Amino acid sequence: MRRSVYDRAIAGELSKLKLGEVTPQRFKRLCDEVKEKRWPAVAVHVREVVLLVFHHAQGSGLDVSNPAESIRTSAIATFEPRERAVSPSEVRAVLTALDHVAAAATLRSAVKFVLLTGVRKSEFIDATWKEIDFAAARWTIPAERMKAGKPHVVPTRHSNGARHGRAHAPTAVYRPCPLRR
Q1: Longest dimension (CA), the chain
Q2: Pick from 19, 59, 27, 23: nearest CA to 43
Q3: Cα–Cα distance between 73 and 69 in angstroms, integer?
Q4: Model confidence over 54-91: pLDDT tens digits?
Q5: Residue 50 to residues 15, 16, 58, 167: CA-CA distances in angstroms?
Q6: What are residue 108's phi and psi, to 5 degrees?
Q7: What φ, ψ does residue 22 adopt, rounded to 5°?
Q8: Do residues 133 and 151 touch, judged by C-beta distance below 8 A?
Q9: 0.85 exceeded by the pTM?
């Protein structure tokens, strides 16, 4: 994604300049143009990419000031927190539609797993077999991979019985795949 942001929004404007020529004013102007032409989130990504490029340059021993440090993210864009959740009928519609998508079965299973568990794509992709407890039907994501910095337990067995007040009857166990060993 960073490469795409660089190619589409940064390269044309900044790639021919020396690092010292990228002033906070010029950079803020670029962010404002990107925000207007593309989306506020893309402009925030532009700031992050430029911030990282200058951090790398500084870490390599170059004595340059970072124009992205002088511009706060909130000066580029602010975002309202999302308050809407996907409804059960919407989840059902997606799960039903997935059965009719021309895609590999493993991809359809992965999308279903992520949708049913609510985990982030990176948490799913970076999963390892040792995190899965098949007997207990749970997946424990270690703290170092969680955004909140705390381990997170994800149930991997769903039960219609639980929804209707009956005892948990074991049903399909979703096995994330592929997992690194």
Answers
A1: 68
A2: 27
A3: 9
A4: 999 999 999 999 999 998 888 888 878 777 788 888 88
A5: 11, 14, 12, 54
A6: -60, -40
A7: -90, 95
A8: no
A9: no
